[in-house]
Amino acid sequence: MSLFPLRASEHLHDVRYEIRGALARRAEQLEREGHDIVKLNIGNPGAFGLRMPSSMRVAIVENLHQADPYSHQKGIFPAREAVVMQQQTRGVMDVTADDVFIGNGVSELIMLAMRALLNPGDEVLVPSPDYPLWTASVVIHGARAVHYPCRPERGYVPDPSDVERLITDRTRAIVVINPNNPTGAVYPRDVLTALAGIAERRHLVVCSDEIYDEMLFDGAEFVPMATLAQRSLCLTFAGLSKVYRACGLRVGWLVFSGEREHARDYLQAIDLLASLRLCSNVPGQFAVQTALGGHQSIFELTQPGGRLHATRSALVSAIRKSRWSSLEPPPMGAMYGFIRVHADRLPGGLPAFDDQAFALDLLERKHVLVAPGSSFNVPYRDHFRVTLLPDADEMADVCGRIETLLDEYALRPDGR
């Protein structure tokens, strides 16, 4: 008996997440064949030996006896209260533990926030380039992601006037990713202030992705969006995965601040969705209070002499010497470099260069896995993203492999 093809839901038709897509699957095949692959496609600190603070492990172990039952759908009180204290130290004074939801990573909370907000045909302003989960979380609910440009020539910082021109009567929210993934841009205060003003005037929800909030380089200043968006509903997303190098714990939080009285129905919908999934991972929640209240070891990694700072320096130095690529401006935050290949310098020019084909070639021929720039919802195809997680020597080696592949392109008539 033959069966009809089992089709995927139409809700997934325009959903993309190429960071773990075909290239990653091919990398797994190459590993099974015995090849060592340098995986620079995902910001996964633990895979490169960057460990969470030991005090967080102790907090989890010492509280395991309390972790058998479900917690409240919003999370355990000590974790939520620790997030409140962090917000207050940053100048966000209008939040309580009732305004905080703990989730299975920020990813789950983004999906909950969009599911509760959007109807088919609604629009959300999303940066381009973006972290692709944001676009996916919009389109999976039948809404439309409207991408506002963060142009390379502006240092990947958005122009607020560009943003405002894209607003229609269907626009519900604006997404801000700061420090930015994939570019490493850290937005200036005046730009964030202008975006907050637009949200207030146009009655938009502000969704601020701040998962890299304390991962900064060379004196860059992080400005919490909630300190500026006080007359709009502001959703702040952060967690333990990046700054605290604890991706596997799957612990993130969502904080509601600003104007909330008009949003009671929406907030109740978030609570309903949180209840339907019962609660987030309980053991990991016990690490939140220790993480936020203890020594912030991320600064030792990002300051001169620290590992992330050294790797960033190695990347910047190597790309500045490259004949074919550039990294301008250098990343000022997060853990990525968004590298441009100057395809016009290669035989055949721009039409001969394609970021997806290049990434596959780099994987097959040099055993380095990167994320093509077009994975991040940009209209150009001459960028790729790498993580800053290897040590400086390995990063220098990777850059050498990339340059060698581009040299090989230059020797071939078709640029490939």
Residue-averaged pLDDT: 94
What is the strand tally?
Answer: 13
Number of helices: 13
What is the N-to-C succession of helices and strands? HEHHEHEHEHEHEEEHHHHEEHEEEH
**β-sheet strand percentage:** 5-15%
Going by CATH, what is the homologous superfamily of the largest domain?
Type I PLP-dependent aspartate aminotransferase-like (Major domain)
What best-fitting shape do the alpha-carbon axes yield? globular
CATH topology of the largest domain: Aspartate Aminotransferase, domain 2
Radius of gyration over alpha carbons?
A: 22 Å
- The SS-based structural class is alpha/beta
Instruction: Give unreliable regions as ranges.
Output: none
Record the strand order, biggest sheet: 2-8-7-6-5-3-4
How would you summarize this macromolecular structure in one to three sentences?
With about 425 residues, the chain is of the alpha/beta class.
Descriptive overview:
The chain contains 13 helices and 13 strands. The protein has 416 residues and is of the alpha/beta class. It folds into two domains: 10-51 and 300-411, Aspartate Aminotransferase, domain 1 (Alpha-Beta Complex), CATH 3.90.1150; 54-293, 3-Layer(aba) Sandwich (Aspartate Aminotransferase, domain 2), CATH 3.40.640.10. The strands form three sheets. Strands 2-8-7-6-5-3-4 form a seven-stranded mixed β-sheet. It has a four-stranded antiparallel β-sheet with strand order 9-10-13-12. α7 links the parallel β5 (171-177) and β6. The radius of gyration is 22 Å and the shape is globular. It starts with 21 loop residues before the first helix and ends in a 5-residue tail after the last helix. The model has no long low-confidence stretch (mean pLDDT 94).
